[in-house]
Please model this.
Amino acid sequence: MKKVEIEKMSWTDMRDLDKEDTVVLIPIGTVEQHGPAGPVGSDYVVARQFSIEVAAASDGVVVAPSVCYGLSHQFKHFPGTLTIRPSTFEALVRDVCEALIGHGFKKLVLVNSHGGNEASCDNVAREILDRHGVSMGMIYPWSLAMHLGRGMPDLYENPAKAFGHGAEPTISVMMHLFPGQVDESRVAAGTRKPTTEALKTLSATRVQYQGFPLGLYRYSDEVYDNGASADPTGASAEKGKIVFDRMVEYGIGAVGELRGLLGQRQ
Ligand SMILES: [Zn+2]
Model:
């Protein structure tokens, strides 16, 4: 069976890889609440499994050990959320990338499954470009599901109800990836806490004024009672398999596209 995970390789396996063209996927997530039933490791588990399946179905793609911890400050009051500082996160991701570049790899792709990490991933990628002249890629595995379900219109009639944090697609995918481990009796929709008219539009970092966003930083538990920002009821392992398989199919094409783009510098 094809070996795609670096953690399973020897140094001689690594030596023999084509450093010019091998794409190294670096799965990145965080450890944070995903509502009362969602596993706290959901983000890095999805990033890792997505990367492994994309690599297994592609030629010349390997997967680095995951960066499990990330930036989940807004969820820190929920037990099990283990957030780290942006400076720690950026240093960790940068050092992993520089270690790979030190071994000669030139095509690095961050597979980031947590939206809150994105700005820091951008910072690292720009720093790596400046320091090493290496242009990196980034993939958000959920993008297919996130854009109002555009990638899955047959599965979600009402995307506004289904999508959000700790929402149905995540719980379904985790039921698929962790069979029998998600407690279905705890799957429940989140409800907004009673709040003033202005704060009814509050997300973790934004409030709307006359239809436009203003920055306003709060903790998630000031907004949602159980941590979920949408309705995950109706989640199932069967649906999770369909969603995940489509994400992987998209990922295989996206990595192929990035491989070509990373090899072209003007
Ligand atoms: Zn997340």
